[in-house]
């Protein structure tokens, strides 16, 4: 393998380039990013007074093989000193809230939360959990998350808890999202153990094994639930880009919009706005629709399937208030779609990461997230949603849900167009079929990024690693 072009410089493209660089089999890597910044949705505002605001992900989970894999990379990049860990015993890990019937309710946790009736639920969770063990397994090879949970745990849990969870991870509608692709642990638990509960107790499949490096070991020892970085999440892609630059083996191009890719005798011709370059192989870490628009006509079946992977738009409103204004302490609260379709939830950023507050004086940072699968019905076309309207809707939610009547001392409104892919029912078949088309047609193309194998930062990084290992036929 001589030259590999990586399309898209979000965390997926950066991760793929990082793993390619580890192999002596690859002579040259060319990373092409359309915008003026690497990192994609990992995007932070660092204000001159020291405050940090996240516009995309704000915490990464260290759990599991994918979590360890990311921490190994963080270690290798020399970012260990920059880590801000949040342990499982921290109030931000213990307390998450639901806003239901005009009130905040702490989500049930611990033994007492399971054996007692905890509003907004009408019966102890223990009853649903105990009955779950007896529910027969389905013969369907996929179903919606809502249907799966209604069938196994009851409609109330599906309508309130799972509806909210899907909004807090996918900004999506649990009635359309696929359980197999969005929550493979739940799907596999039913398939292999016949029950979610038994799957949790006994394990539900072959777990991937990743050797834990020093930072991953520390995260285990200190029971981290999530982590961030002192200068914000954006430091992570910045450190990868710096590492790639220093390797001397990667050409990094910003403001390089890929316009078209065409097969050539030895691989691909990649057409940019201002020139053409050649590559033996392409790893695409572009959003599915962006890739579909640059493929040649000969890839029509693939183009169509890529277009069928839709994504939702989320309005992210960062707010700063003077003083300690929160009536409760925790990670934040989610709002089920039955309560308010357009308002997804509010993150209490100052609770897990007070280090990101302005250093002088007491302030509270919150992030309100709106829209998602309900964006158009609530706000119309994204072009029509003004910053004033989104800010007013966000501050009104903070007033109504948290009783904060003061105006924010600082705010920033950002519209993330098509930012979270939606894995609808049948997603796994579509992805299998796309990869099958690539294989059967001997295309020197790999698909990675958030549109295929998981949307979390950990999943996207791991997908970049898998693409490189499959390409090279070795472990990197
Ligand atoms: C608001 C929000 C909150 C989130 N919170 C969390 C969280 O708490 N924890 C978590 O784990 N995950 C979270 N995520 C998910 C995670 O951040 C994303 O799934 C992940 O960053 C996607 O990375 P990616 O590289 O696949 O895609 P992207 O970040 O979309 O990168 C794709 C890149 O391709 C570029 N591009 C597009 N077209 C072209 C072209 N024609 N030519 C060249 N380049 C092009 C784009 O400019 C972009 O930089 C969140 C996401 C959002 C939006
Ligand atoms: C309200 C909207 C959103 C909030 N965060 C996201 C959206 C769309 C995006 C998001 N959040 C998480 C992930 C990664 C999932 C993973 O597998 O690591 C993504 C893409 C983490 C997350 N956030 C919440 C939960 C339950 C999770 C899953 C992992 C975990 O248990 O930590 C809850 C939550 N998210 C938001 C709020 C307000 C909230 C409230 C309790 C914001």
Characterise this structure.
The protein is α/β, with parallel strands linked by helices. The protein folds into three domains: 164 residues, FAD/NAD(P)-binding domain, CATH 3.50.50; 112 residues, protoporphyrinogen ix oxidase, domain 3; 112 residues, Polyamine Oxidase, Chain A, domain 2 (Alpha-Beta Complex). 36% of the residues lie in helices and 22% in strands. The strands form five sheets. It has a seven-stranded mixed sheet, with helices on both faces. Strands 9-2-1-13-19 form a five-stranded parallel sheet. It has a three-stranded antiparallel sheet with strand order 10-11-12, with no helix packed on it. A hairpin with a 2-residue loop joins β10 and β11. α1 packs parallel to α18 and α14 packs antiparallel against α17. The chain is globular, with a radius of gyration of 23 Å. The structure holds flavin-adenine dinucleotide and ligand LM7OVKF4. Pfam families: Amino_oxidase (PF01593). Catalyzes the 6-electron oxidation of protoporphyrinogen-IX to form protoporphyrin-IX. It is found in: Mitochondrion inner membrane. Its main location: mitochondrion.
């Amino acid at each position: 393998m001589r030259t590999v072009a990586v399309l898209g410089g979000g965390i997926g493209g950066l991760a793929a380039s990082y793993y390619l660089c580890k192999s002596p089999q690859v002579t040259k890597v060319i990373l092409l990013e359309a915008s003026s910044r690497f990192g994609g949705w990992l995007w932070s505002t660092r204000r001159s007074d020291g405050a940090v605001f996240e516009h995309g992900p704000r915490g990464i989970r260290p759990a599991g093989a994918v979590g360890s894999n990311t921490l190994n990379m963080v270690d290798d990049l020399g970012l260990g000193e920059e880590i801000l860990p949040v342990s499982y015993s921290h109030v931000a890990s213990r307390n998450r809230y639901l806003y239901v019937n005009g009130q905040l309710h702490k989500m049930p946790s611990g033994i007492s939360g399971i054996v007692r009736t905890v509003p907004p639920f009408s019966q102890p969770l223990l009853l649903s959990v105990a009955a779950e063990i007896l529910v027969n397994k389905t013969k369907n090879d996929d179903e919606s998350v809502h249907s799966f949970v209604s069938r196994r745990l009851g409609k109330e849990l599906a309508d309130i808890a799972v509806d909210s969870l899907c909004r807090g991870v996918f900004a999506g509608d649990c009635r359309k999202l696929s359980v197999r692709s969005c929550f493979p642990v739940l799907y596999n638990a039913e398939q292999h153990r016949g029950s979610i509960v038994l799957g949790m107790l006994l394990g539900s499949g072959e777990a991937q094994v990743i050797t834990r490096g020093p930072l991953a070991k520390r995260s285990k020892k200190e029971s981290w639930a999530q982590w961030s970085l002192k200068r914000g999440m954006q430091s992570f892609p910045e450190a990868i880009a710096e590492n790639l630059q220093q390797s001397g083996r990667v050409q990094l191009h910003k403001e390089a919009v890929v316009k078209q890719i065409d097969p050539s005798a030895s691989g691909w011709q990649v057409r940019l706005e201002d020139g053409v370059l050649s590559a033996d192989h392409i790893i695409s870490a572009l959003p599915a629709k962006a890739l579909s628009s640059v493929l040649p006509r000969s890839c029509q079946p693939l183009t169509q399937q890529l277009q069928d992977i839709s994504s939702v738009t989320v309005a992210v409103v960062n707010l700063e208030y003077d003083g300690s204004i929160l009536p409760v302490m925790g990670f934040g609260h989610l709002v089920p779609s039955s309560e308010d379709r357009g308002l997804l939830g509010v993150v209490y950023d100052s609770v897990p990461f007070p280090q990101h507050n302005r250093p002088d004086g007491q302030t509270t940072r919150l992030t309100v997230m709106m829209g998602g699968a309900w964006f158009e019905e609530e706000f119309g076309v994204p072009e029509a949603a003004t910053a004033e309207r989104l800010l007013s809707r966000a501050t009104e939610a903070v007033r109504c849900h948290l009783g904060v009547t003061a105006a924010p001392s600082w705010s920033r409104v950002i519209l993330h167009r098509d930012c979270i892919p939606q894995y609808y029912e049948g997603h796994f078949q579509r992805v299998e079929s796309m990869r099958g088309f690539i294989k059967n047609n001997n295309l020197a193309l790999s698909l990675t990024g958030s549109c295929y194998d998981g949307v979390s930062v950990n999943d996207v990084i791991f997908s970049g690693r898998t693409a490189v290992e499959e390409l090279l036929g070795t472990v990197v």
